[in-house]
Each structure stands twice: as C-alpha cells, then as structure tokens.
Amino acid sequence: MGEPWGQIAFVIVPNDHHRLDAAAYKARYPEARVICPAGARAKIEQKVKVDATEADLGDTVRYRMLGGTRDCEGWLEIQGGTLVLGDLIMNLRPMRGFGGWIMNCMGFSGDSPKVVPATKKVLVADREAARKQIEGARRDAGAAARDRGARPSDHRRARRQAARRCSGPVKGPP
After folding, report:
1. pTM for the whole thing?
2. What is the DSSP string of 25-76?
3. Total domains in the fold of the chain
4. How far apart are CA 159 and CA 143, in angstroms?
5. How far apart are the first and last CA of the chain?
6. Is residue 129 part of a domain?
7. 103: closest CA among 120, 118, 88, 89?
8. How far is CA 23 from the centre of its chain?
9. Is the pLDDT of residue 21 over 70?
10. What contacts 95, CB < 8 A, 6 or more positions away?
11. Within a domain: residue 153?
C-alpha cells in the first residue's frame, strides 16, 4: 500500500506489551517485515508471525536491545541524537478523564521524562545494565531522549535522574 512518505518496510514491536496491534499493521502492510526483541518473540508470535529479532535499518538508525531487560525491550537509536524508547522512560503529558486519572496516579504522566516504578518492575531485571546503556547512548548522542508525546525541549537533568532511578536493588524474578 502506498504511503505519503514511502513504502513501509518494517513493523517494529518494541516489547510483548505492544503486540496487540501488530497483526493489523502486518495485514495493512503485508510486505513489511515484523521485527521484535528475541526475549519477547514467543508472546508476540501469539498475535503475529515474527520475521526476525534483528534488523539492518541503514546508516542512520540502529535497532538495539535495552540492556538488563532479558532481551525483551527493543529501542531505536537515530543518528543525530534521538532515542526512541518503548516503555522504560515515559514522557506523557498529564491526561484527563478517568483513564487519565489512573495514568496520572500511577505516575505514567508528568512534566518530564521518567522511569515509572511499575514499568521498571515489569521490564527491568538488571537496573545497572539498563542505566549504563541509556546513559551511554545519551552521552554518545549528545542530545535529548524522546519518547511518545515528548516536547523537543531539553530534559538533560530529568534524563539523568531517570537513568539513576534504573539502578538499585532488583526485586522480582531474574
């Protein structure tokens, strides 16, 4: 199917929590390859056939696994300094309505990027490994990490605080 910006080549499912719409995207773009993290493949394949767990996206974008997540959280590093993260660092503006109230109370929204405790508990098995990789990518890129709903303003201090919150004792199964 033709799209204004060109042909869709990949459907990237960042983790098993985002697998529900993958089949619809594959149906709309049957030529697209479905890519997902190796550690999430079994759950994702309950909804859609996965073509690969690694992908060459060219010279300007790298598909990577987030350290410390048992290879269950994929992310993109875009040349020029943008990090596209799935769920670990949230950057949603405060929301309205009952659903917004729940999201706000659980800490998913706010004025700056942050690591949400519930998400950290589900995704991260090795907080130090995740922190080091995010800090390293941020340092290497030299620019702001962006996620859904992010404003392009500079959030360096918030990113450092979020990366520090990744470290600490690990709770739950490895």
Report:
1. 0.70
2. HHHHSTTSEEE--GGGHHHHTTTS---BS-----SSEEEEEPTTSTT--EEE
3. 1
4. 11
5. 42
6. yes
7. 118
8. 19
9. yes
10. 101, 103, 104, 109
11. yes
